[in-house]
Amino acid sequence: MFVRNPRRGTAPVPCRRGLPLVLLALLLASACGGPAKGPESVSLPGEWNSFEGTGTLTGHRQTLRMGPDRKVNTFNFSGSLLLKGERRLGQGFRVDLIGSADSLKGGTGWSVWTDTSGDQVFSEIRGEHIGTGARIIGTLLGGTGQYTGVAGEYEFKWQFVIESEDGTLQGQITDLRGRVRRNAPPPSPERKGSRGKDGSVHEPA
Hints:
The chain is mostly beta strands. The protein has a domain at 49-180: SO1590-like (AOC barrel-like, Beta Barrel). 5% of the residues lie in helices and 51% in strands. The chain has one helix and ten strands, in the order ββαββββββββ. The strands form two sheets. An eight-stranded antiparallel barrel has the order 3-4-5-6-7-8-9-10. The longest helix has 11 residues, at 21-31. The protein is elongated, with a radius of gyration of 32 Å.
């Protein structure tokens, strides 16, 4: 808007100062991505957390036939496992698995999952024979590093298993679901000479 200046004709009237600082700060915050995110949730000791995953494995099987209706085999696998879940054990693992299976009694085995930092998760598995559609159940048995003291269980299904004439296996696991918890750390031992819960003093021996 222009107004007449009695000395120099017309000149622009200086505009008012900008928006109040508080309003300006709110506008800047909105332009920079909205409200700040809250702190991420942390899994507490003893709390159960669920996870899911998929994997791809290759290995070898040796078979011993015990008559026309029964066969026993040993097997070993190695490959990769990818987990997902808000509080999963980890994301990517190398898997090593060995075991045996009986066509009449089912199978059992042991597995080690190793993450990128070298920490490991141990588990025991049991279930049906190694083959397409077979379902396997696993029990977590602790581990090393950040997985020390973990416990839980999981299950998965062999989506497909391909075996060559020399016993080489290729398989993919799917529908892997489980739950895990980290055990609470054991209580620290009472120091000699310290006062116990009942008020008594533990003197050095």
